Automatic annotation (TrEMBL):
Function according to Swiss-Prot or TrEMBL: DNA-dependent RNA polymerase catalyzes the transcription of DNA into RNA using the four ribonucleoside triphosphates as substrates. Specific peripheric component of RNA polymerase III which synthesizes small RNAs, such as 5S rRNA and tRNAs.
Organism this protein belongs to: Geotrichum candidum (Oospora lactis)
Domain of life, source organism: Eukaryota
Family (UniProt): Belongs to the eukaryotic RPC34/RPC39 RNA polymerase subunit family.
Subcellular compartments: Nucleus
GO cellular component: cytoplasm; nucleoplasm; RNA polymerase III complex
Pfam families linked to this entry: RNA_pol_Rpc34
Protein's name according to its UniProt entry: DNA-directed RNA polymerase III subunit RPC6
Keywords: DNA-directed RNA polymerase, Nucleus, Transcription
SUPFAM superfamilies, sorted: Winged helix' DNA-binding domain (SSF46785)
Record's keyword annotation contains Transcription: yes
GO biological process, alphabetically ordered: transcription by RNA polymerase III
Signal peptide positions (record): none
């Protein structure tokens, strides 16, 4: 059984006083559905347990006067949306034009809203919208954001929200520009991590290892050792993701999908290759391994055959 909902503190200084039934209706509207949901009159009547439509409309009017309910028309039908206490508190301090603009920005959520769309939806003059935006930004109610798909557009969203993935472009973008240094740093770290688990460490002396095979062509090169074909403990995406997370090399949270994308970039660059080890794993290519061990001489054809065996 779910714990009882904590009552919302509706009646506060400077706020229109609400009846108990109006307060209860608003609490039900906020908690019954996700933000932005629009209720029909029938749904509200059922939610409030009101048999008398006139009583329901009185409570709705109370909430409308307190900026806690907004009306929306779809065709010939009127719908009702709940406004949070925080947004209602902001709305009560704004002019009618500012409230109209702010309401549209709130409705846009984490996707933000383009200024051109604001003009169309509010039907306000460009200068009026611009003045409202300046005031709302000065009061820190809203903030400008950049969209990676439309970097020249002026887009605004509520100050306390984080831009959606579609808007920000995800962790690979900073201020709507792709962060190549960040990507390069992460791919380098991932390649070193995978390489350390792709090849056995070099032998200190002429000893043998039952779990490894080796090839020593190329004259003065150090022995290149590889795991046998039965070896299957190459790093997987979850293992790589856990390493990236615990190492602290990224200052943002990266999903498994993000890590897989980075690994695929390394595959495309011929730094890693996919292996089937019961799940999708990765191993470092010979090119990557030679670079990391500082080999100065390319392996012979015989060496390459041994590695091609994988």
């Amino acid at each position: 059984m779910s714990p009882p909902q904590k009552p919302l503190q509706h009646n506060q200084p400077g706020v229109p006083q609400l009846s108990a039934r109006a307060q209860d209706l608003h609490t039900q509207m906020v908690t019954a559905h996700t933000p932005g949901y629009l209720y029909s009159q029938g749904e509200l009547q059922e939610l409030a347990g009101a048999k008398d439509v006139r009583a329901l409309l009185r409570w709705v009017q109370e909430l409308t006067n307190a900026h806690l309910v907004k009306l929306a028309q779809q065709g010939s039908a009127v719908y009702f949306g709940a406004v949070t206490l925080t947004d209602a508190r902001v709305m009560r301090t704004l002019t009618p034009d500012e409230a109209l603009v702010y309401d549209q920005i709130v409705e846009a959520g984490r996707n933000g809203i383009w200024t051109k769309t604001l003009h169309a939806r509010t039907n306000l003059h460009h200068n009026v919208v611009a003045r409202c935006l300046r005031q709302l930004e000065a009061l820190r109610h809203i903030k400008p954001v950049k969209a990676v798909t439309h970097p020249t557009r002026k887009i605004y969203m509520v100050a306390g929200l984080e831009p959606s993935l579609e808007l920000s472009g995800g962790p690979w973008f900073t201020d709507a520009e792709i962060d190549t240094e960040f990507i390069e740093s992460l791919t380098n770290v991932i390649c070193r991590f995978v390489d350390a688990r792709s090849y056995p460490p070099p032998l200190d002396g002429p000893s043998s290892n039952a779990n490894c095979s080796s090839s020593s062509g190329g004259g003065g090169t150090s022995e290149l050792r590889v795991y046998p074909a039965t070896y299957g403990d190459f790093p997987t995406v979850p293992a790589i993701a856990e390493f990236v997370k615990t190492s602290g090399v990224a200052n943002v949270d990266l999903t498994l999908s993000d890590i897989r994308t980075l690994c695929e970039v390394c595959v495309y660059d011929n730094r890693l290759e996919k292996v089937d080890n019961g799940g999708l794993g990765y191993k470092a290519t010979l090119k990557t391994h030679l670079h990391n061990i500082g080999a100065e001489v390319e392996p012979t054809a015989a060496d390459l055959v041994d590695f091609e065996y994988w």
